[in-house]
């Protein structure tokens, strides 16, 4: 069996013909006058050529095309539809409907987004309202940060992320992250991991332009709360990879590592695309006291022009007792991704402990 036959289906197949039929059936159940055939004809047109986000948009467009109702009456029908859909991701077509056709009815639309987010997420849709009416939207989202439903609390943080994947950037929040700071502060000790991940990702977004601002915020938090400490570690992950001393200090690894690296090597030293390398080394303490160590490695990927582009990978955080050693290893498949293409040549590998490069090795990619 070929790799193409065993590969997982593309994400866009969440919105396939079978799913469209499911939506038509459920719409007919909650609204008997629904024109199912017209909906399916509209939704299926050119479906195979559409991306996952385009398919999501197509569904909301198709619903709008065949519903003979006004906006608020259509929402009533979609409210009944939401709990009947068999996929949380598919339900995100409903917030898309709100973003597309509800700009004229701010209060009604924001209530709809709050409701729909409990079935999937309204994170993409709410950004349209943030872009058109930032202050009014953020004011409401500050209140959502106190909601009893963790989906709603998460929407307050996720929807206001400056660099939300698969969406446009919120330039105003990107330029001034303090606009959403109150939301993050209310959620900094949230009991829901779903919410905490969002807060951490929001802050990690901000580190791209305002690392010192993020560090100031987190250094002002009490990290005795385990949930707050978790957010801090994950929010600072990009800065920790970069060896930022303030970020390392926040997680207790700001001191210079008093260790030596032994037997740093990559095996095999020569590989072809599709093969696996194993990086291994030993970290040995040279002092009597315990140390917290953040251990990472970087690969200097060869670029098409012969230069290199470094990519840092997380390895582990360890509490190393005095004069003790720890053996560290990592396997990595050398293959092309949509975000990275490999080129032939020598690729340097650097091992970092508490942000400092303490050892290096490398591997050579050759033609297959």
Keywords:
about 375 residues; alpha+beta; Serine Threonine Protein Phosphatase 5, Tetratricopeptide repeat; Immunoglobulin-like; 2 domains; five-stranded mixed sheet; three-stranded antiparallel sheet; 17 helices; about 45% helix; globular; disordered N terminus
Summarize the SSE layout with pairings.
Blueprint: H1 3-6, H2 17-30, H3 36-44, H4 52-66, H5 71-81, H6 93-101, H7 106-116, H8 126-132, H9 134-144, H10 150-158, H11 171-175, H12 181-187, H13 193-207, H14 211-219, H15 226-235, H16 237-241, H17 245-250, E1 259-267, E2 270-271, E3 276-285, E4 291-302, E5 308-320, E6 325-333, E7 345-353, E8 356-365
Parallel strand pairs: 2-8
Antiparallel strand pairs: 1-3, 3-6, 4-5, 4-7, 7-8
TL;DR?
By secondary structure, the protein is α+β, with helices and mostly antiparallel strands. It has helices at 3-6, 17-30, 36-44, 52-66, 71-81, 93-101, 106-116, 126-132, 134-144, 150-158, 171-175, 181-187, 193-207, 211-219, 226-235, 237-241, 245-250, and strands at residues 259-267, 270-271, 276-285, 291-302, 308-320, 325-333, 345-353, 356-365. The longest helix has 15 residues, at 52-66.
């Amino acid at each position: 069996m070929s790799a193409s036959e065993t590969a997982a289906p593309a994400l866009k197949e969440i919105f396939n013909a079978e799913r469209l039929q499911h939506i038509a059936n459920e719409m007919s159940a909650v609204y008997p006058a629904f024109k199912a055939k017209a909906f399916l004809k509209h939704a299926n047109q050119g479906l195979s050529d559409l991306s996952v986000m385009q398919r999501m948009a197509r569904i909301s467009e198709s619903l709008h095309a065949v519903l003979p109702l006004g906006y608020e009456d259509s929402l009533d029908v979609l409210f009944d539809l939401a709990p009947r859909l068999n996929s949380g991701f598919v339900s995100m077509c409903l917030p898309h409907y709100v973003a597309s056709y509800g700009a004229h009815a701010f209060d009604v639309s924001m209530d709809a987004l709050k409701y729909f987010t409990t079935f999937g997420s309204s994170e993409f849709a709410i950004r349209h309202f943030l872009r058109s009416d930032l202050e009014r939207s953020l004011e409401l989202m500050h209140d959502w940060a106190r909601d009893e439903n963790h989906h709603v609390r998460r929407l307050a943080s996720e929807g206001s992320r400056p660099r939300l994947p698969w969406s446009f950037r919120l330039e105003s929040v990107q330029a001034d992250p303090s606009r959403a700071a109150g939301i993050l502060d209310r959620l900094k000790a949230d009991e829901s991991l779903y919410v905490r991940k969002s807060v951490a990702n929001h802050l990690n977004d901000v580190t791209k332009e305002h690392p010192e601002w993020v560090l100031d915020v987190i250094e002002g938090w009490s990290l005795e709360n385990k949930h707050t400490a978790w957010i801090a570690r994950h929010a600072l992950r990009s800065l920790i990879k970069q060896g930022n001393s303030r970020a390392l200090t926040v997680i207790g690894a700001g001191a210079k590592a008093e260790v030596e690296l032994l037997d740093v090597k990559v095996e095999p030293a020569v590989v072809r695309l599709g093969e696996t390398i194993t990086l291994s080394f030993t970290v040995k303490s040279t002092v009597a006291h315990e140390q917290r160590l953040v251990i990472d490695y970087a690969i200097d990927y060869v670029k098409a022009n012969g230069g290199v582009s470094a990519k840092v990978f997380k390895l582990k955080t360890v509490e190393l007792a005095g004069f003790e050693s720890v053996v560290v290893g990592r396997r990595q498949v050398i293959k092309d991704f949509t975000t990275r293409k490999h080129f032939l040549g020598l690729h340097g590998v650097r091992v970092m402990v508490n942000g400092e490069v303490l050892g290096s090795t490398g591997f050579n990619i050759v033609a297959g």
